[in-house]
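During the no-cost extension, the postdoctoral fellow (Dr. R.K.) reprocessed legacy sequence entries with the updated structure-token encoder. One reprocessed record is reproduced below for audit purposes.
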Amino acid sequence: PMYADRVAVVLVRSPVSAEERAEAEKALLQLADSAQLQLLAGTLHQTKPEGAVSIVNIFAARRVVLPPLVIEEISGWPNPAVRKAVYSGLPNMVSPEAVQVLLGLLQRVSDPEEVASVQRALIAIAEPETSRIILQAAAAQKARLLPVLPYLRDPQSLNTVKNSFEKGQGEEMELAFAALTNWQTGDAVPVLLSLLRDKSQASYHAKA
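Re-encoded structure tokens follow.
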């Protein structure tokens, strides 16, 4: 533990080479205990970008769950390297308590990779209660949340997707169809079979 503490100082404060930083990251990945990792989370705001990237990579690899406020803070960092590390590791660093933060992020981000990372993070926390919250948010964020709905643990999610396919247009309809084909249980099979019998949806028959 003492050695891990000294290594952590290297990442947080010391000007080091890329090689030294990589060695420090490797050492912490193997040696740091949960208490030390949580202490590292509190240092992110004072860490140089290069060190912050390493720390975030460690959190993601060790599946360190960060508080929602920390998730909100680090997801808004302007440094491109830090931002990429944060969004790449996001699904491994969130808990159900972060659902509202993630839904807020999904509204704000525009980069396709960041959108996909937030969607994966929402899927990672899809428990019954969070599924209900996500499903409620889908009314206002259909395009962003339709890809998440096949993974929810809520019986109403299939009806939401089915309605989007039957009543939506353009992108919404395409996303709803993709969601139906990605459904994680057999519940969507009757909907897809019905689609195959509908001649007005012939363009989707080969894809179903």
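The two ends are 55 Å apart (CA to CA). DSSP finds 14 helices and no strands in the chain. The remaining legacy entries will be reprocessed before the final report is submitted.
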